[in-house]
Amino acid sequence: MKNSSILIAHGAGGQLSHELIAELFLPFLENPVLSNLDDSALLTAPGTRLALTTDAYVVKPLFFPGGDIGRLSLCGTVNDLAMMGAAPLGIAASFILEEGFATEKLERILGSLKAAAEEAGTEVVAGDTKVVERGKADGLFITTSGVGAVPEGVDIQGRNAREGDAVILSGPVGDHEAGILLARGDFSLKGTVLSDCAPLNHLVDAMLGASKEIHVLRDPTRGGLATVLWEIANSSEVGLEVEEEAIQVRSEVMGVCDLLGFDPLYLANEGKLVAVVPEKHAEKVLSAMKSHPLGKSSVAIGRVVAGHPGRVHLKTRIGGHRLLEPLSGEQFPRIC
Amino acid sequence: MKNSSILIAHGAGGQLSHELIAELFLPFLENPVLSNLDDSALLTAPGTRLALTTDAYVVKPLFFPGGDIGRLSLCGTVNDLAMMGAAPLGIAASFILEEGFATEKLERILGSLKAAAEEAGTEVVAGDTKVVERGKADGLFITTSGVGAVPEGVDIQGRNAREGDAVILSGPVGDHEAGILLARGDFSLKGTVLSDCAPLNHLVDAMLGASKEIHVLRDPTRGGLATVLWEIANSSEVGLEVEEEAIQVRSEVMGVCDLLGFDPLYLANEGKLVAVVPEKHAEKVLSAMKSHPLGKSSVAIGRVVAGHPGRVHLKTRIGGHRLLEPLSGEQFPRIC
Is the separation of the CB atoms in B215 and B301 below 8 Å? Predict the structure, then answer.
C-alpha cells in the first residue's frame, strides 16, 4: 500500500477505504467469495445444523513467540467452531485500527492470518475495517466470527457430560499465557515459551473419525483448564474428578508460574482441548488424538461422577484433594 | 450488576466474567441458544445458501437522537444480510469495553440492541466480551456478525445490475450522518436530526414478495449514496444515470450540508436502501416499498445503461451533468 501508516480516511468508506481493501487486504485474503465485496458473503451449507461464534482479540503484544494477533484470531474462532464438532464454512474478520498503525505490521498480521486459515482449510469470506483516532485504540483489535456445519449424528455441547465419561486433555497446559507473559517482558523474566496457538479442527475431525459419540469439547482459553472443567461440571450438572499428576506442564511454564505465584491450571491455552467421552469410546478417541501432531501428548486426566454436581475435585500429587473453582479476579489482562 | 463500572477482571474469563454475562448480558439478551454459553451457537438453516457478514461499530457519540451504538450495531448487520436477500438466522455480538465504562450505559445499550433485534425478528445467539485498560479504547466498540438464509430463487449481488434496470431509493438521504454531526455538537450547530437507523429486513421481505427478480440491493452507509452507486456501476460493469431532482434530502439535513460544505449524496444512512430491479418488475417492487413504513418515500431515481461502464452520471437540478465519484478522503470519522 502506498501509505506506510493508517490514516483516519482509510476508515471513511470512500476512495482510501477502497485502496486499503484492494492494496492490502485482498492481496492477502483474496478468494472468490470475499472478492465480491458484497454486504455479506454467500456460503453453502452441506448440512442444516450450523454453528456461529465470535471473539474479540485484544492481545498485547500483537506479535509473540509462536504467533501474532492474526494467527490467534483465526485459530481462536476455528477452535470455537471445532468445539461444537463443526467444520468451518467461512470466517468473517473485522479490524479496528488506530490512526497511525504501521502498514507493514498490518501486512505481517494479514499474512499470518491467511497462513493460519490455510492450515485450518478455511477462508476469510467477509470483513470490515474501521479506523479510530490516535489514542482511542491500542494499535489493532480484531474480531473474528465463524460459521460452521455440524455433521449428521454429532451432538457436542457443554451440557452433555454424563456419569462415567472419561475426561481427556490434548497436551501440556499454560504455554500460550506463559508465552505472552514472557513476550511482554514486564517481569524481567528471561527465556521464551512458544504459544501453542493452533487450529484444532483437523484434530477434532480425527477424533470424530474414531467416534461420533463425543459428549463435550472445550478449549481452555481465558481462565485455563480449571475454569473450563468447572464450566463443564456446571453446564452438565455433574461432578468431575481429575488427577493433578496426569496434567502435564512444561518446565519453562512451571518456572514462570513459580516465580509469579500463578497456578498453571488457570493459564490460557490456544491449541489444546478437553474432551468428555463415554468410557467405552475413550480408548479409540485417545488413540486417534495421539496419532495427530496437535494431540500427540493427549492423556486421560479424570472422569465424570454422579456425586458433587457442579464441583471439580482435583486429586493432588501428594494424595490430597482440592476443589477447583473458576478463575477469581484477574490473572493477566489481554492475553487473547 | 453489583459493580457500577467495568473492571479489567470482567475480561479475565473467570468469576467476574461469569458475573458480567449472568447479571448484565443474559438479562437483556437471553434466549435458548445463547443461554447454553457454548463456544458456538447452534442454528438450523431452512435453506442451504447462507449469507455471512461482520461490521465493527465505533460510532461517537455512543448515544444519539434516533439510536445508539446498540441499535446501530444490530441494524447494520441485519441490513447487510438483507442486502443479499437473506433472512437473519442469528447474530453474534462482540464487545470491547474500556476499563471504567459505566455499567448503566452498557445496560442502556444492551436494552436498545435487544429491542432492535426484536424489531428485526432475530436474536443475539453468540457473544464475547473483552476489557482493555483505561485509555486503550474509547468506551465501547461492538462488532456484530450475522448469518442468514437466502431464499430459493433469490440472487441479489452487487454484480447483477443489467442494462435497462430501474434504480430505486427507499427515502431521503443523509439523516444518520447529519444526526451524528449535530449530536457531537462540534460545530455549535443548533437543531436535531433523527438518525434513520432501522432494520430493513422486513422491507426487503415485502419487496421480494412483490418480485424475486431483484438484481442488486445496497444500503448506502459510509460513503453515502454516491459511493454505493459507484460501487454498483463498477461491480456490474455498467453505467448508471440518476436524476438529482428525484433524490430527497430533508431541509434540516440540507441545512447542515450547506453550513459545513458537505454533499448530502456522500452522507451515511443506516435505514435506507438502493434497489436495482428489471424495468418490468420496477412498478410492483416500488409499490410494495411504498406500502411499508420504512419505504413510504421510495422513488425511482434512475436507470442502468450500457454506455460508460463503471461511471455514474448525475443529471443535476439545473439540467447539467456531473460524474459521481466515490467519497474521496475522509468526510467525518466514526459515524458508525
Answer: no
Residue pair A186/A139 in contact (Cβ under 8 Å)? The answer is no
CA separation (Å) from B275 to B157, B282, B305?
11, 9, 15
pLDDT level of residue A47 (50, 70, 90 thresholds): low
For residue B204 the three cell numbers come to 426487503
Q: Cβ contacts (< 8 Å) between B43 and chain A: which residues?
A: 49-52
Give the number of C-alpha atoms closer than 13 A to the C-alpha of residue A121, restricted to the C-beta side. Answer: 11
If you average pLDDT over every residue of chain A, what do you get?
A: 93
Domains in chain B (CATH in brackets) are 8-150 (3.30.1330.10), 166-324 (3.90.650.10)
Spatial distance between the Cα atoms of B204 and A190, rounded to a whole number of angstroms: 59
Report the distance separating Cα B55 and Cα B76, nearest Å: 8
* Beta bridge mates, A315: A243, A321
Neighbours of A310 (CB within 10 A): 13
User: CB neighbours (10 Å) of residue A32?
Assistant: 8
Cell digits for B71? Answer: 441499535
- pLDDT tens column, B94-125: 999 999 999 999 999 999 999 999 999 999 99
Q: Which residues contact A32 (CB under 8 A, 6 or more apart)?
A: none
**Is-contact B154 B208, C-beta < 8 A?**
yes
Maximum distance among all Cα pairs of chain B, rounded to whole angstroms: 67
| Residue B234, C-beta contacts closer than 8 angstroms, at least 6 positions apart | B310
Q: Tell me B264's DSSP state.
A: G
**DSSP type of residue A5:** B
B165 close to B303: Cβ distance less than 8 angstroms: yes
β-pairing, B239-243 with B312-315?
A: parallel
Q: Which of A226, A44, A14, A279 shows the shortest CA–CA distance to B328?
A: A14
pLDDT at res. A214: 98
Subunit contact B14:A138, Cβ cutoff 8 A: no
The amino acid occupying position B73 is: S
Largest pairwise CA distance in chain A: 67
Res. B10: pLDDT tops 90: no
Taking an 8 Å cut-off on Cβ atoms, the answer to whether B138 and A137 are in contact is yes
**For position A191, what pLDDT does the model report?**
83
Closest CA to A216 of A264, A169, A149, A270: A169
Taking an 8 Å cut-off on Cβ atoms, the answer to whether B37 and A231 are in contact is yes
Cell numbers given for A10: 482509510
- Looking at the complex, report in whole angstroms how far the Cα of residue A283 sits from the nearest Cα belonging to chain B: 25
Written as nine digits, the cell of A285 is: 478417541
SS3 category, A44: strand
What's the CA gap between B213 and B138, in Å, rounded?
A: 43
**Could you say which of B12, B54, B219 has the minimum Cβ distance to residue A333?**
B12
**Omega before A61 cis (within 30°)?**
yes
CA distance B279 to B274: 15
Q: Of B18, B90, B138, which has the smallest distance from its Cβ to A52's Cβ? A: B90
C-alpha cell at A140: 489493532
* pLDDT tens column, B141-178: 999 999 999 998 999 999 999 999 999 999 999 999 99
In Å, how far is A291's CA from the nearest CA of chain B? 25
Question: Does the reported pTM lie above 0.90?
Answer: yes
pLDDT in tens, B27-69: 888 888 888 777 778 787 766 789 999 999 999 999 999 999 9
Residue B278's CB is within 10 A of a number of other CB atoms, namely 16
Judged by DSSP in three states, B181 sits in: helix
